[in-house]
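forwarding from the other thread:

> can someone predict this with protoporphyrin IX containing FE?

sure thing
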Amino acid sequence: DQVNPESSLAEQIVDALNQADGAYPGFRANHAKGLVAEGTFAPSAEAAGLSKASLFAGAPVPVTVRFSSGSGIPTVADGSPRANPHGLSVKFHLKDGSETDMVLNSRTFFPVANGKDFRDLELAVAASQAGAPKPTALEKFIVDHPLVAIPLKTPESLAEEQYNGLNAFILTNAAGIRQAVRYQLVPPNVVHLAPEEAAKRAHNFLFDEIRERIGRGPVTFQLRAQLAGPGDPITDATQVWPAERKVVTLGTLTVRKVADDSDKAQRELLFLPGQVTDGIEASDDPLIQARDEAYAVSFARRSR
Ligand code: HEM
């Protein structure tokens, strides 16, 4: 065993991420490379029909967002396959002084269904670095978890990527009607690069470009909710819901300004998928709790 069996699953997950990617003091165990920016969220007229949460009530809400690259490597090359998936996290600053978070990435499904499998995936990655005997631990893991082998794409810009929530949340409206949804942050255009093209780009091309783009003018995404239909799996993020499911636009996210000191801001920020306000609830998807606990462990370690 490569992790301490006495530790909590969340500690084991962070240990496994550190073994796979290296441990970089002060940085997140995953999605270590990032940029913090500020903006607003303006809800649509339809949003309040799905959720009584105050962010959907009408007035624009200030937000803090963080764009990120996958992996725990803070210097990962933007065009490297290891930088996928990219992330977009949103913290809504509500009128009552509380916060509600959404933590999305550019996958369209998650490759494993629960925290234990995520830990085992990261341990398999750690045991399968260059020179590992074949079949590697990762090759063996893929036999039972084939979704792990599906390659992810590099975007042309962090503003030209769609980010998905993957885990289901339950929205409750003023009449008490509950609806399971999965969030999407959809830009005006989605553009992906061929892998050979991504490999040729400059080391920091995505983060240099997004800084410059936000400097030129606002960057927008539509926040959408895909509505679960009868029988759709709520607790399994490995399974996509049918493409014909209704999608409701909840509002427009407008990113207006890069944070004055993004490095300091990202050290202090903690986004938690399960930190949600009245009118939004975590579903029973086990990934949500596993994530909350692992993000808290990662935050505690990077704050020391
Ligand atoms: C069991 C499944 C997962 C585990 C164990 C996990 C683990 C982690 C950890 C430890 C961090 C660092 C947190 C911090 O220090 O603040 C992180 C960050 C992140 N994760 Fe996950 N993750 C999981 C699934 C997901 C999923 C399903 C998504 C998106 C749909 C996602 C998107 C992100 C993003 C965007 C960040 C960066 C957050 C930020 O900007 O601060 N992760 N993850």
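The CA atoms of residues 31 and 70 lie 5 Å apart. thats all i got for now
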